[in-house]
């Protein structure tokens, strides 16, 4: 007992009976699970946990003849035999490609997955022009179009393998005030996506949904619930044609524009912040996690599933303390259409839910869906399982929140810096310095910051 032992690479090599060079190679291949500490002299020091992981890797690679990719998936708690997506052969249509999710999806696609092409599909040419300045047009293509226009969607999807449907009207008050518009974009738009994808023979379609679609209390949520339902049922139209439709469902992306963090930051300048109800809890998801969830969904999807990320919760009061310690708090009462806690999986859905390390999968409950080959090793959840932000087993405490808020601010600064440096042809470090300096950004770029 007492202090846990730390091992030198030589000791690890002897324990595992594999050469040091192999351990170094595994460290590169499994960088997200093996992270030895470094001494001042840059010597590696492995913990017991590292050793356990390395033993598991040796077991899988040497004795069970698993490939590196399969081993990675097993270590992540996933299905080893899942068919790998060959990204360099995929042409993706991304509706809403100029939105917060869309831009981050493109960034990760270009940095990590390198597909053959991503076709951005959205209405506003200025946003597309701005994206073109940053990401170029080698892999990304820019299609002006509205999801209400089925013909245009059909043309945009010709020859595509995958569709990620992120376009939506998503501001709760604006959907309440313009209900027919919300229906046309979020529901009829979803129907057009389904029809076009089946007509041109797209293989997989993943649509983005929200916690607000669960027991909806506002029109935005209700339109997203309809969209979810028709995506799931869309599989019964495509049947023999082979197009498969699935959804991902997650809650507020906390750091995004209009979310609570920027609001608190702005309010704290006055020494006072507003909170609707002190009991409120929320899930915490980053854009990275949202994009990775869509990637997992694309790998697993057999049609009809709803993928929900396994993410921590936070108490709104802890977030206030992390962002604006010492500020006065005004409690203004819960707003219409607001919930105390987010629900991502209801009790009815819980009965059909299985769990992998990073996500829950709500499986469809229809007779057309019998083949469960991708889900054989998922863990079945108990019958009364629900997933709501107040009953989560993982919580972010004030210190975790402080760290995450700092990280989300610096990620925002970095993407602004990359964007501005392209516009102004300035070195990215210079722009970052400007963002963080007292003077701020030059006048001409203020509109983009
Ligand atoms: N942000 C969140 O916290 C959150 C949480 C859960 C789920 N979601 C879901 O995730 C998806 C993406 O959200 P986001 O945060 O990226 O939204 P966003 O930043 O508001 O972006 C919306 C995108 O959709 C496009 N769009 C809107 N109406 C369109 C139409 N009729 N035809 C074609 N394109 C249209 C917009 O471009 P144009 O205006 O130029 O057309 C924009 O590219 C949405 O489905 C949303 O419901 C978001």
Low-confidence stretches: 438-449
Mean pLDDT, nearest integer?
Answer: 88
Helix- and strand-based class? alpha/beta
Whole-Å distance between the termini? Answer: 53 Å
Strand content: 15-25%
Whole-angstrom Rg: 23 Å
List of distinct ligands in this structure: NADP nicotinamide-adenine-dinucleotide phosphate
Task: Return the domain count.
Answer: 3
The CATH H-level superfamily of the largest domain is: NAD(P)-binding Rossmann-like Domain
Helix fraction bin: 40-55%
Q: Strand order of the main beta sheet, please?
A: 5-4-3-6-7-8-11-16-15-17
Stated plainly, the CATH topology of the largest domain is called Rossmann fold
Number of helical elements:
16
- Biggest sheet record: 10 strands, mixed
CATH architecture of the largest domain: 3-Layer(aba) Sandwich
Shape: globular
Number of strands: 18
CATH class of the largest domain: Alpha Beta
From the structure above, extract its key features:
binds NADP nicotinamide-adenine-dinucleotide phosphate, Multidrug-efflux Transporter Regulator, Chain: A, Domain 2, 449 residues, Rossmann fold, alpha/beta, ten-stranded mixed β-sheet
Describe this structure in words.
The chain has 449 residues and is an alpha/beta fold. It has three domains: 9-75, Orthogonal Bundle (Multidrug-efflux Transporter Regulator, Chain: A, Domain 2); 87-251 and 285-310 and 343-389, Rossmann fold; 403-448, no CATH class. Helix content is 43%, strand content 16%. It is built from 16 helices and 18 strands. The strands form five sheets. It has a ten-stranded mixed β-sheet, with helices on both faces. Strand 1 (37-38) and strand 2 (44-45) form a beta hairpin. Helix 9 packs parallel to helix 10 (219-238). It is globular. It binds NADP nicotinamide-adenine-dinucleotide phosphate. Residues 95-102, 122-124, 127, 146-148, 166-170, 185, 189, 208, 210, 224, 250, 252-253, 256 line the site of NADP nicotinamide-adenine-dinucleotide phosphate.
């Amino acid at each position: 007992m007492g202090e846990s032992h730390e091992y030198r690479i030589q000791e690890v090599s002897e324990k595992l009976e594999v050469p040091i060079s192999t351990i170094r190679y595994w460290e590169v291949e499994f960088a997200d699970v093996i992270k030895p500490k470094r001494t001042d002299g840059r010597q590696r020091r492995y913990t017991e946990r590292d050793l356990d992981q390395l033993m598991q890797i040796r077991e899988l690679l040497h004795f069970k003849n698993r490939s590196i990719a399969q081993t990675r998936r097993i270590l992540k708690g996933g299905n080893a035999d899942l068919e790998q997506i060959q990204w360099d052969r995929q042409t993706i249509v991304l509706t809403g490609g100029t939105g917060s999710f869309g831009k981050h999806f493109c960034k990760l696609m270009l940095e990590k997955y390198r597909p053959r092409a991503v076709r951005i599909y959205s209405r506003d040419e200025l946003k597309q022009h701005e994206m073109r300045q940053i990401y170029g047009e080698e892999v990304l293509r820019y299609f002006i179009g509205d999801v209400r226009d089925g013909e245009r969607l059909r043309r945009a999807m010709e020859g595509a393998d995958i569709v990620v449907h992120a376009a939506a009207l998503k501001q709760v008050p604006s959907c309440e005030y313009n209900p027919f518009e919300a229906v046309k974009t979020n529901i009829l738009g979803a129907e057009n996506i389904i029809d076009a994808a089946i007509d041109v023979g797209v293989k997989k379609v993943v649509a983005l949904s929200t916690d607000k679609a669960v027991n909806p209390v506002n029109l935005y949520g209700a339109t997203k619930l309809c969209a979810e339902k028709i995506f799931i049922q869309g599989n019964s139209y495509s049947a023999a044609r082979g197009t498969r439709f699935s959804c991902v469902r997650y809650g507020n992306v906390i750091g995004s524009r209009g979310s609570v963090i920027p609001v608190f930051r702005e309010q704290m300048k006055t020494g006072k912040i507003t909170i609707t109800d002190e009991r409120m809890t929320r899930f915490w998801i980053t854009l990275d996690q949202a994009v990775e969830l869509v990637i997992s969904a694309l790998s697993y999807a057999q049609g009809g599933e709803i993928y929900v990320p396994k993410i921590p919760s936070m108490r709104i009061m802890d977030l206030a303390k992390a962002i604006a310690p010492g500020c006065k708090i005004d409690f203004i009462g819960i707003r219409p259409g607001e919930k105390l806690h987010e629900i991502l999986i209801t009790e009815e859905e819980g009965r059909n839910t299985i769990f992998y390390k990073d996500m829950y999968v709500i499986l469809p409950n229809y007779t057309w869906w019998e083949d469960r080959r991708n889900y054989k090793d998922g863990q079945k959840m108990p019958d009364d399982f629900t997933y709501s932000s107040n009953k989560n087993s993982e919580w972010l405490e004030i210190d975790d929140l402080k760290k995450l808020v700092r990280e989300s601010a610096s990620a925002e600064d970095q993407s602004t810096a990359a964007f501005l440096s392209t516009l102004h042809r300035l070195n990215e470090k210079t722009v970052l310095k400007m963002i963080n300096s007292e003077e701020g950004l030059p006048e001409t770029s203020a509109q983009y910051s």
